[in-house]
Amino acid sequence: MEDQFSKLKSEAAKVDLPDECEENDRAVQFLALETGVGHYDNLNLLVLSVLMIFIAVSFLAVNGGKIRNDEELTLTKESFLSGEFEQGIEKRYLRELPIPEQMQSAEEHISFLYGIGNTISERGSGNYNNLIGRQQEGEEYNPFDNDERDENAVTTKAVMTDKDGNTVTEADRDETAPGGGTTAVSRPASTYKTYSMPDADEEMTTTNNEAPFVTTTTTVISHHTESTQDTEDSTEPSDTEPPVTEDPDSKPDTEPSDTEPPPDVPEER
Amino acid sequence: MTYTDLIFLFAIFPVSTVLSMLDRSSEYKNLILIITSLLFFSWGRPFVVCLIFLSLVVDWALGLCIGSIREKNRTGAVLLTAADGIMNAALMLIFGHNYLFADTALALEDIMLPIGMGYYSLRGFSYVSDVCRGKVRAEKNVFCIMTYMVSFHLMCAGPMVHYGDMEGQIRKREVTTEKLNAGLNKMIWGLSKVVLLAEVFRKIRTAGLNGSEITTLGCWLGMLAFFAQYYFMFTGLCDMSRGFSLMGGFVLPINYRDIEPDELFTGLVKSYNSTVIAFFSDLLGIPNSKSKVRTAVCAVICGGIMGLWYAVKPISLIVGLAAGLLVALEQLFLKNILAKLPAFFKYVYLVMASLLIFGALEFKGFFGYHKWVLGLMGSGVQYTLSVAVKDAVLNNCVLILIAFCVVCTPVRRLITGSADKLSAKSRKAYGTVRICKTIATAAVLVISVITLAANAAV
């Protein structure tokens, strides 16, 4: 076929064809190509159908090695009408997919092709939590509609004392370094820290102006005046600290008085 | 069950296809198709099978009644058609939009609800109304009606096809290698749209429209991703549906088409779920209307009906009416003004109109929508871009680029045109292009299956 096509082409090149023959030339070329269409169509069909059949057979026949005998599938009128039978079949089919760990690993490796910055989760532990992560990601949410604060929201409070015996209340320990620039850092609200020392009748407010929407409130109630160094130490949350206070009502540093605790009680929110 | 369930793709569908090839008669193929479709439709919810049989038998019987009295008693035929319409609407509301009946006796568990009730109800009603209008004769063979009504090819994303267009194929059809090849290719590329591309945009949407860190670019990218996610989900399912039907010997109408800037917002609306829009337009008499004002009014009503067909919620109705109103305004006078704009500005107009109208579908109420619109303009937003959005975009930039080439018609035409030119050079070049296409299709199938299996693996 290729010879015929080349022959036609070479012959056409020899002859100085008039304009009206150009269309004929294209038609000849098209016909020559057309005869190959069926050949490549068949090849395409063969490759894809073999692949489909291979996947179908391997999914049906190859065992994932996780058969559980405690889930017997019995076809009864009740199990069929309640849909339990079909669900059982589907569960068993998915459970018995071949090489599930390798599939998950392959999927992660393939994701490298999708873009920049993809990582592979640690596999050594045998803990495959990526499915759970995906499920959580896919949960329905509509946060733009949730501006009104939830009246029923439960806030947690942690009261702790520092090494000097001062009571320390942390608003949020998840704070990351304030960003600045134009990229928001994923973090909860926390920007300003208030230290109240009622006995000393002194209040010190530290404000981070670079991230106004992110606030942290730290209240230190002390029976004696603290040094600056002590104050700094108490602002550094650590992972070992107990649960911290969620502070939905934190306001920007323009209203520091809102954060003042009652005289004798640690501030609660 | 959906088209992307592994048990359907690699167990039920291949078995059904192989079984249907054992005999050339259409009756045998129809029987296999009905059994497979009932399995598909009622998987895990056999109660639905009873519902299907009951409703399609009613449609069939009403069709016969209307066919026999249509010429003698026109009013009676119209009343029967209206009764069928009410029955199908009730079916759609109860089983398709069951959230309306929460805390009532009609409330059903999600697991009991069948899929595709919107399309199913429309098919039932379209058959009876076509008989009433004399577009198709009443079918005496209930199995032909059953094949039309329950065929899984039409279940997930349409198309909304009339019985008259299917009747010939139900009675006689052939499965050729050309159809098998085209169908397999369509199915695989559709699967990749759903599994790979729609998923990418879901991630960007989740990150961008996150109320705890609203950013300007997040509002833009999140909403564009929202559209892209549903576009690829829908077009992917349509491609899969068309592929399955080709492999079963059917040739179905296309349910979506390319977005052309010259057709403005009207063209954009009609390009998505086009067979359903055509059905409602036809029902309201828009194609036959000669009055511009009547057409405009009908367009608004059609928009409202479409909105309610998608979801029976106030926001859907408002969005549908708003879209219908813009279509009506274009028909009345805007088209003449906007047609003079350069293509770029037409694209800008389309993007802005779509964002502002259809963007509301993402929110439960006006408050969220208002907040998002302010975010779009950068009002009350401290940051331009969040880390989550940046990561979601960068981690999937290759897929986003591919998605852009698929959606953007001029770019896609440039690529396919170049491939055509290359393959027209010589037979060797043609073969190279075809083999590359086969390899790409096989690779896409493998990647999609691995992704599906990795997500589903227990």
UniProtKB/TrEMBL annotation, chain A:
Biased composition (Basic and acidic residues): 160-176
Compositionally biased tracts (Pro residues): 259-269
This protein's UniProt keywords: Membrane, Transmembrane, Transmembrane helix
Protein name per the record: Uncharacterized protein
Compositionally biased region (Polar residues): 183-194
Region (Disordered) location: 160-269
Transmembrane segment boundaries: 43-62
Domain of life: Bacteria
Biased composition (Low complexity): 205-222
Compositionally biased spans, kind Acidic residues: 229-247
From TrEMBL, chain B:
GO MF terms, alphabetically ordered: acyltransferase activity
Keywords (A to Z) from UniProt: Membrane, Transferase, Transmembrane, Transmembrane helix
Magnesium as UniProt keyword: no
Residue stretches in coiled coil: none
Keyword set includes Transmembrane: yes
Alphabetized InterPro entries for the sequence: MB_O-acyltransferase (IPR051085)
Transmembrane regions: 6-22, 51-69, 76-95, 101-122, 142-163, 214-232, 293-311, 317-335, 347-367, 393-415, 435-457
Protein name in the entry: Alginate O-acetyltransferase complex protein AlgI
Organism: Ruminococcus albus
Lineage of the species this protein comes from: Bacteria, Bacillati, Bacillota, Clostridia, Eubacteriales
